[in-house]
Structure formats: C-alpha cells, structure tokens
Design brief:
mainly alpha
Length: 302
C-alpha cells in the first residue's frame, strides 16, 4: 500500500480513529467467545495461541524489510510482541478457568496500565481525568475478582497471570500510539514476529495441540483468526495513532459489553451482580476517556 495514503487529520480524523478502535474492540470482544467454543471442541489455550499471531504474521510479514527505516523501534516492537504473547496466554487461560466474564473484566484493567505507561514515557503526572477513569476500571476489576477468589472460581496465581493480559495490551497501545516513521502495518509485522516466535517455546513438544481435532474446531479457528484476530488488529493499529493511546484504551473498553452480552446469550454463562456493577463502572470510564482531546496526525498505512 502506498505511503502516500494518509489518514485524515483534525476532528474528522480523530472521529474515524475512534470508530476504528471501537470496531476493533468489538472484534476483540469475540475472542473469549470463540475461545470458549474452541475449548468445548477440544482445543487448549496453548493450542489457540499460535492462531492469534502466526496467521497475521503471514499477512504482514512482507513488510518486515521496512523496519530498516527505524531498526531500534522495530526491535522494541519485537519485544512488545513477545510480552503480548505471554499476556494473551494468561487471558486465554483465565477464560478457561474463570469464565468469560471474569477474564474479560480482569483484562479491562488495561487503561490503568496505559495511563501509567504514558505518564512514564512523557515524564509527567497523568491528568486527573485519566486517573479517575483508570480508578473506575480498577474498581470494576476488584468487584469481579474479589468474589471469584472467595468462591474459589479461580486461583490467585491464575489471577496474577491473567493480569499479564491487560499489561501487555497497554504496552501495545503505548508502543503503537507514538509518532513513528513506520506505518501501522509495518509495526504490526514487527509485533507479530515477536509474538509468533514467542509461541514456539510455549507450544514446546505439544505441536499437535495446535491442530483442530474436528471440522467444528477448524471452523471456530477460522472465525477466531479472521473476525476476532486479523480484522480487529488492523482496526486497532490504524485507529490508535489517530486518537492517542489513552483515548484508544478507554474507547476500546467497549469490548467488555460485547464479551459479556455474547457470553450470556450464546454460551449461556451467567453474569453475576458484581460483574454487572463492574460493567457500569467501565461504561463510566468509557465516558471519561472518550471525552479526552487527542492529536490526530496523518499517518501512512504501510
């Protein structure tokens, strides 16, 4: 794709970026749904992991030579990809052990990590609006995690590992939200390379776990890769530089509503009162985050 193709700047550009992030968030909201269906079809979290990253790498891989324009950033993005793989594994395991609602609400502590990472990068205190929104998201996570631990629905080590998901996603948003000479698709290629290589030692000698055991499992994997994988990733990577990482993080919490609603209607997983209260708090965080002003620079897609 030509580097002359740029996103619009200004208010319309930011609105377009917010729309892309919202679409991406809705797609990512389907990840725990397809994961739960895949588990029922005999797959494991470790077996699902390569499909999240290796297939996108096949699409974006031809852009890897462009990383020579900014080799240091390319190496940083590679490292982000490695961390992202570990975080996604924690999330997928939480879906398996704690259920869709709990795992998703844990994941939505990521705006706090995004705010802290941006504060470290910019070397200034986060604005009160960011802190207030992040506090609401953390309160939402506590409302779900506390009762789940008390009722032994999930273990404390599993909860700690699950929080690797929101941290790694915040790291991703922070990395791709910065100005860069590289287009978002090239950055995706570097991230996917790190993620795909990190999948290999996780699979280890269990390569067979990545192969579907039935036609049903294969169809679920196809949906997992496309509707909940490549499509949302493109939307997020293109939309985030148009909005800024913090605004993208808070708008991206729309994913929660998709996951909870579909988990209840399609999977039949009950949503507990604490999780409903948590969703309300996250909706408030979305309102605070969406009201932020963020730059909307033009950027080349590739």
């Amino acid at each position: 794709m030509s580097t002359a193709e740029t996103a619009p700047a200004g208010v319309s550009g930011r609105a377009g970026g917010l729309a892309l992030v919202a679409i991406g968030a809705a797609g990512f909201g389907l990840i725990p749904i397809f994961a739960a269906l895949a588990y029922e079809a005999g797959m494991t979290p470790e077996g699902l992991l390569p499909y999240r990253f290796i297939v996108p790498l096949l699409l974006f891989g031809p852009l890897l030579p462009r990383l020579r324009q900014a080799p240091r950033e390319g190496l940083e993005l590679f490292g982000v990809g490695v961390v992202l793989t570990i975080g996604v594994l924690g999330y997928l395991r939480a879906v398996e052990t704690g259920g869709i609602a709990l795992a998703t609400i844990i994941f939505f502590s990521f705006p706090l990590f995004t705010t802290l990472l941006e504060a470290l990068r910019l070397r200034r205190a986060p604005p009160p609006r960011d802190l207030a929104a992040a506090a609401l998201v953390i309160a939402a996570a506590l409302l779900s995690v506390g009762p789940a631990l008390k009722d032994a629905l999930i273990s404390l080590p599993a909860v700690i590992f699950a929080f690797g998901g929101p941290f790694s996603y915040a790291l991703l948003l922070s990395a791709i939200g910065r100005p860069s000479p590289l287009g978002p698709l090239t950055r995706s290629a570097a991230i996917c390379l790190g993620s795909a290589l990190a999948c290999l030692p996780i699979l280890g000698g269990s390569i067979a776990a990545a192969f579907p055991a039935s036609i049903e499992a294969a169809f679920i994997l196809l949906l997992f890769v496309t509707i909940a994988g490549v499509g949302p990733q493109l939307a997020i990577v293109i939309g985030t530089p148009m909005t800024g990482a913090s605004a993208a993080a808070f708008v991206g919490t729309l994913e929660l509503g998709v996951s909870l609603a579909l988990g209840w209607t399609l999977i039949g997983e009950p949503v507990r009162p604490g999780e409903i209260a948590a969703a309300v708090l996250i909706a408030a965080a979305i309102f605070l985050g969406a009201g932020k002003r963020a730059p909307a620079p033009g950027h080349a897609l590739s």
